[in-house]
Amino acid sequence: MPGDGPLPYVPVKRRLVLFFPGFEPLGAEAHRDRFDHAAAKTGKAFDVEFSCSQLSSRPSGLPGFSVDASGENWSTQTDVAVFDWSAILDTFARRNVLIRLVSGIAALFVLLGNGTVANYMRTSWRYGFFYLYPFLLLAASAAIGAAAAAATSSVTSSALPPIVVGILATAAAVFWASRQAHLLLMMDDWHFAIRLARKDNQAIEAVKFVFSAQLAAECASGHYDEVLVIGHSLGCVFAVDSLSSSSVSGDHQPSLMTIGSSLFKIALQPKAGWLRHSISTLTTANVKWLDIQALTDVISFYRSNPASSAGITTGLRPNIQRIHFKDMLLETSYRRNRRNFFKTHRQFVLGNEKRYFYSMHMIACGPLPFAMIWADGGIPDHDALVENGFAGRRPR
């Protein structure tokens, strides 16, 4: 009977996951709640039971939680440490609205002038849509203001009312774009990207220093079968920098999975040589690195390679796996979210509704050793694994 015999691999009993979230205004508690909800959804697709503990402080000072996962013939305990950098986002978000807009626009033009945008287009031309998106929102807001001013001038001979109405209409459009299309968050994101690449923000540099020390402390904190670093979106920059700076090696060396990576948002900037060096450090150290990409995600760099796209050819080249969200979601969910940049980008860390060779929660909390997943580019599509109720079928 399927599931009666021994599993065709040695299950991971204890795992440590070091999670670096992306540029989202969410704290550790919100990330834990999202993980819990998404794991429950994934469990239904894979016939797996997940149980997440409440958030608590770990010895390293990081917030974290534990996940107990179990299926037929196996059970795995995973400790998840969250590298929460939402406090930095808060400092950017607390600035005056006008300052947020101006600094974001300035950053976009700096990237255009110093050749970074050209680098973006050469590396993954789809990223150009995301670069242009704030300009389109601002242009639409200005057009709405101009139309309102023109309509007002047609009913009055005074010059002041059209100006006031135009300004108010533009402000209302910017407010709507910020609430519904994350305009101000994107402005903060682009300004943050410039400061991060230049290493000229003390708060950011302090977080990077602490993260590196905490990652090293976590790796030495317990007896785990394996340690896996997961970075999502812009969190991949902190993940790569912290792992390369921690000097963790030998039996304690973690593996790395980057998902929906925005690594090149920073690495392709002229002043980000430090990040390119960090990437080189990891490849030279032969870190098992799996990079997950999706065609429909324009916020990450599709068809790039974390090493060779940065001009790095030494060491162990990261494995690349391209996924299709439509194959891991129900049709209604996929159709509902596919035209939203941000919901699509978040899908990497959300749950599966169908069995598939990619599932963050099954990779992070399931029994398969990451070395096996890294070698196969995802959850292996072996008959023995399918019979044991674990792996999804990879699209041909």
Task: Describe what this molecule looks like in 3D.
The protein has helices at residues 28-46, 86-93, 97-113, 116-123, 127-153, 160-181, 183-198, 202-219, 235-245, 263-267, 273-284, 331-337, 341-346, 360-365, 370-376, 383-387; strands at 14-20, 49-52, 56-57, 63-71, 74-82, 226-232, 255-259, 289-294, 319-323. The protein is α/β, with parallel strands linked by helices and 396 residues long. Strands 1, 2, 3, 4, 5, 6, 7, 8 and 9 form a nine-stranded mixed β-sheet that branches.
Task: Quickly list its features.
disordered C terminus; 9 strands; 396 residues; 14% strand; alpha/beta; nine-stranded mixed β-sheet
Write a concise synopsis of the structure shown.
By secondary structure, the chain is of the alpha/beta class. Helices cover 49% and strands 14% of the residues. It is built from 16 helices and nine strands.
Number of strand elements: 9
For this structure, the quaternary state is single chain
Shape: globular
Figure out the total of helices.
16
Order of helices and strands: EHEEEEHHHHHHHEHEHHEEHHHHH
Alpha-carbon distance between the two ends: 28 Å
| Residues in β-strands, percent | 5-15%
Model regions low in confidence, pLDDT < 50 over at least 5 residues: 391-396
Main sheet attributes: strand count, strand direction, barrel closure: 9 strands, mixed
Q: What structural class do helix, strand and pairing data support?
A: alpha/beta
Mean pLDDT: 91
Overall helicity: 40-55%
Q: Using the CA coordinates, give the radius of gyration.
A: 23 Å
